[in-house]
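Researcher: We plan to redesign the surface later, but first we want a full-length starting point. Tokens attached.
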């Protein structure tokens, strides 16, 4: 019933205007089925308290997004008024519930926008719930800089070859229970060198009324470089207090003594006609007044894709995550996945229909950490693989996106 209600709301946002202007439809889908070597449903390998995991052959859910954009009116200055909505579906493997409870059907985007306003030097203004200024690494699905929010903003106001954006928001996403104000400013378009550009962003979270509540801020600096057939990204991020979310709204109980620092480096591109890849390196240090909460996270991984011919690929992915507190927990994951790719042999060509085999190994500290924080999870001594500290999964998956 919840699914039908939300579907009706989504269509209601767009249908009344389709008789006037064209309706643009896009989406994303990943779906499949996976099993453990022990015979049960696949459970995923991820290190407790790490901020991401390597995803090839290591996604344990069905997920889809369907996005509609409806242009409402075109003004004399060629600016356009439009609305946008995105309906998302999430369902865990092996869960008998249908897109409800921890699984969900949600209208994750719903906003109005006025684009390319000549009086604002081509800027856009918007209000509502929106995915905004999202930067992610594909192989780990890690959104390290993300200003998505429920609020309003002005986007890409041009002044002297630079672009300025501002967002005021009260919720990062639909799952944030408490309303918390956040201000985001981004300046982009710095031409630092040939084929290189720089963006700078700052977030400020004012203090929330109540005991043990603090303000916070964060800063993100990102450089993108085109090198032949490769695209390289380097990002540096720093935050304190509630800004330790590093562009997200962090824990408002943290004070100015609590700090986080992160460096992100990733590169992708075409190596030869038949070989492409993406690789990443991440380091994050969390300083906390409470010594027990201090930690360092290291992550390194690569996904090479070899095209056997125009429609078939052999994909591999290996990733290592390490989380250091008093001791270091480690997880290494390897996946091999032959895939049918009817639309081409490049790294980004989709759809891909993959058969995969995933093998992972983790150390004793990773198991102890899982037992403490998440008993019954994959790495714990009561998970799919008991006390073995190694295991494998296999399955089939389709991934597809379209505009």
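Model: Full-length starting sequence:
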């Amino acid at each position: 019933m919840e699914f039908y209600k939300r579907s009706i709301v989504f269509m209601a946002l767009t249908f009344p205007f389709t008789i006037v202007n064209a309706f643009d439809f896009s989406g994303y889908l990943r779906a499949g089925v996976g099993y453990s070597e022990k015979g049960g449903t696949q459970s995923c390998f991820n290190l407790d308290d790490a901020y991401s995991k390597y995803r090839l052959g290591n996604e344990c859910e069905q997920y889809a997004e369907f996005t509609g954009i409806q242009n409402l009116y075109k003004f004399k200055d060629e600016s356009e008024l439009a609305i946008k909505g995105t309906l998302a579906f999430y369902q865990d493997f092996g869960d008998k519930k249908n897109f409800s409870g921890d699984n969900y059907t949600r209208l994750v985007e719903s906003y109005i926008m006025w684009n390319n306003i000549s009086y604002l030097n081509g800027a856009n203004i918007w209000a509502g719930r929106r995915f905004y200024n999202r930067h992610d690494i594909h192989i780990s699905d890690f959104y390290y800089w993300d200003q998505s929010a429920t609020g309003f903003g002005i986007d890409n106001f041009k002044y002297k070859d630079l672009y300025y954006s501002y967002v005021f928001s009260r919720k990062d996403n639909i799952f944030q229970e408490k309303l918390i104000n956040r201000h985001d400013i981004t300046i982009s378009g710095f031409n630092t060198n040939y084929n290189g550009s720089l963006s700078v962003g700052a977030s400020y979270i004012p203090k929330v009324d109540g005991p043990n509540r603090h303000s916070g801020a964060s800063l993100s600096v990102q450089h993108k470089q085109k090198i032949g057939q490769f695209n390289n990204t380097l990002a540096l991020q720093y935050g304190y207090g509630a800004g330790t979310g590093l562009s997200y709204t962090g824990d408002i109980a943290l004070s100015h003594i609590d700090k986080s620092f992160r460096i992100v480096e990733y590169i992708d591109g075409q190596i030869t006609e038949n070989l492409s890849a993406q690789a990443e390196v991440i380091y994050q240090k969390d300083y906390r007044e409470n010594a027990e909460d201090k930690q360092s996270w290291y992550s390194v991984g690569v996904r090479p894709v070899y095209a056997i011919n125009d429609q078939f690929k052999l994909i591999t992915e290996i990733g290592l995550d390490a989380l250091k507190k008093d001791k270091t927990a480690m997880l290494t994951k390897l996946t091999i996945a032959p895939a049918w790719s009817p639309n081409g042999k490049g790294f980004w060509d989709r759809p891909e229909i993959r058969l995969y085999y995933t093998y992972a190994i983790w150390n004793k500290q990773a198991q102890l950490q899982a037992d403490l924080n998440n008993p019954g999870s994959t790495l714990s001594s009561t998970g799919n693989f008991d006390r073995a500290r190694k295991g494998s999964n296999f399955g089939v998956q389709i991934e597809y996106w379209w505009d």
